[in-house]
């Protein structure tokens, strides 16, 4: 979609060093926008280097601001004068000891912090929140309860909790809070982007997204005997960045958008690597029986049997037509995303980590 990206006012990107944010910042800088990048530590030169290098080769400008998700008002300076706020900052990990402290607090309080600040700053016209399909569903089996067996934007997650799939719970609470704040004011318009599992190469040299932990297992031998058909959706990080851009600048963008390129599963992600890497790496070629995953999951991977029952050999289906219609989205092939991601991990010797 051809969209007009105004460059008169700066825009704010929270969590600017993140996996998704990196590609969004790149798109903005290449369009000539001034990006106010909110980060935890502006003095960490190594962590900001890739963004500075992108800015050096782009017509846009980047400015770094210190901000903390848990500190009310800390985004005010970064947001001053900005017409659009992209709130991408939120932890994505399933390996936590204290879900409340590590997931719920930063997601919920951070969203409240950013949106309450936006509501108080006159320049802000639109806020784009990076939510997740996890705010729509917890387990693939939830698709069966959806009308027609397909997840759509009017569905909300009702099955996650602090003790079961707390990441999904955190995304649900955070997005609901965003809509609560947005509905109570008339200063800015809120748009929510709800991606499925994000795959593809990172601009950040040391990405921490959970998807890299999955892909690492395709190359280090963990899944050489097979992978589970664990139902999920997948979207390329570069496509997701374009969706954010459209959500920020397409005039009629509104509400929630499922941004997902493929209804797939873990095995299919691995099999997408066979053609290029099948002769050099132990990528999975066949499925692991659900009964075996059920038996060994809690022992080997800390995967609960409830999770296995609800996701393995269960098809995941979501409707991405709204993103195509309103945001002009097209989605690149799964093989391209997986090959680019896997090659990057080879290049930086990350498969063995």
Automatic annotation (TrEMBL):
Pfam families, per the entry: Epimerase
UniProt entry keywords in alphabetical sequence: Oxidoreductase
TM region positions: none
Limits of the NAD-dependent epimerase/dehydratase domain: 11-247
UniProt entry tagged with the keyword Oxidoreductase: yes
The UniProt record lists the keyword Oxidoreductase: yes
InterPro entries found in the cross-reference section: Epimerase_deHydtase, NAD(P)-bd_dom_sf, NAD(P)_dehydrat-like
Molecular function, one GO term: oxidoreductase activity, acting on the CH-OH group of donors, NAD or NADP as acceptor
Alphabetized Gene3D superfamilies for the sequence: NAD(P)-binding Rossmann-like Domain
Top-rank taxon, per record: Bacteria
Annotated family: Belongs to the NAD(P)-dependent epimerase/dehydratase family. Dihydroflavonol-4-reductase subfamily.
Identification of the protein by name: Dihydroflavonol-4-reductase
């Amino acid at each position: 979609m051809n969209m007009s990206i105004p460059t008169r006012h700066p825009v704010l990107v929270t969590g600017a060093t993140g996996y998704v944010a990196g590609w969004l910042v790149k798109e903005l800088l290449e369009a000539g926008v001034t990006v106010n990048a909110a980060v935890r530590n502006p003095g960490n030169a190594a962590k900001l280097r890739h963004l500075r290098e992108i800015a050096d080769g782009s017509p846009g400008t980047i400015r770094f601001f210190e901000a903390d998700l848990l500190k009310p008002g800390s985004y005010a300076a970064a947001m001053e004068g900005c017409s659009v706020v992209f709130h991408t900052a939120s932890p994505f990990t399933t390996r936590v000891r204290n879900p409340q402290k590590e997931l719920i607090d930063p997601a919920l309080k951070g969203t409240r912090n950013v949106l309450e600040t936006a509501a108080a700053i006159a320049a802000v016209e639109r806020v784009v929140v990076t939510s997740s399909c996890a705010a729509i569903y917890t387990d693939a089996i939830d698709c069966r309860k959806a009308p027609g067996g397909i997840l759509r934007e009017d569905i909300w997650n009702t099955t996650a909790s602090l003790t079961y799939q707390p990441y999904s719970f955190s995304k649900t609470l955070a997005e609901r809070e965003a809509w609560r704040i947005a509905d109570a004011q008339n200063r800015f318009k809120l748009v929510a982007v709800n991606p499925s599992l994000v795959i593809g190469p990172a601009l950040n040299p040391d990405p921490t997204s959970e998807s890299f932990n999955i892909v690492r297992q395709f190359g280090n031998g963990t899944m050489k005997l097979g992978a589970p058909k664990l139902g999920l959706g997948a979207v390329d990080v570069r496509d997701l960045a374009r969706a954010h851009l459209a959500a920020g600048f397409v005039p009629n963008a509104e509400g929630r958008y499922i941004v997902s390129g493929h209804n797939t599963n873990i095995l299919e992600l691995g099999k997408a690597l066979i053609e290029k890497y099948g002769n050099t790496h132990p990528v999975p070629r066949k499925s692991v029986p659900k009964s075996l995953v059920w038996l060994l999951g809690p022992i080997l991977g800390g995967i609960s049997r409830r999770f296995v029952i609800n996701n393995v050999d269960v098809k995941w289906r979501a409707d991405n037509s709204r993103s195509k219609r309103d945001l002009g989205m097209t989605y690149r092939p799964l093989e391209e995303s997986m090959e680019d991601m896997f090659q990057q991990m080879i290049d930086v010797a990350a498969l063995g980590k």
